[in-house]
Amino acid sequence: MTAPRLATGIEGQRKADLGDGSYVNPIVPGDHADPTILQDGADYWMTFSSFQSYPGAVLWHSQDLVNWAPVTAALTQNIGTVWAMDLVKHQGRYYLYVPVLQDAGTAIHVIHADDIRGPWSAPIDLHIHGCIDPGHVVGEDGRRYLFVNGGRRVRLSDDGLATDGPLEADAWTPWQYPQDWVVEMFAPEGPKLF
């Protein structure tokens, strides 16, 4: 058995891109759980669960989904253990919906920026307690929602920085799946890439 081919970076680290149009997985080695990826024109932006590391929510950039480089940390304030975030762009502004585990339990915060490279705002507690796995959705009517664990949703304010109503139960179908998709679970919780 022979060892797999590996490309190396300038510091000897393993790179995914083999330089011949092929790559090896994982694309980003190490502890990078729960990725959320945003396509913004020709650019892709990604962040991962940063758990208790601060600065946290490091944003990575790529133009080919293989070669990634860290750019900035979006979360500079320690608010607890963070994981499974949702990175979105809506009406020219960037948002990162951040589930947080604190001493009092779980909650969801949001940070925002006009430029994805920063500066990012201070965290805003959305007062959605006991929830994780946010998924931002904009309805056909332009209203914004966060879908969370347990098949629940909450309407967001127009600016996405506050809730606009109570947490609703039994919200299992936030959008119509295309007929040709093979879908194993219809729950809308967790990060998505469309």
Automatic annotation (TrEMBL):
GO terms for biological process: carbohydrate metabolic process. SUPFAM superfamilies: Arabinanase/levansucrase/invertase. GO terms for molecular function: hydrolase activity, hydrolyzing O-glycosyl compounds. InterPro entries: Glyco_hydro_43, Glyco_hydro_beta-prop_sf, Glycosyl_Hydrlase_43. Keywords: Glycosidase, Hydrolase. It holds the Pfam family Glyco_hydro_43. Belongs to the glycosyl hydrolase 43 family. This is Glycosyl hydrolase family 43.
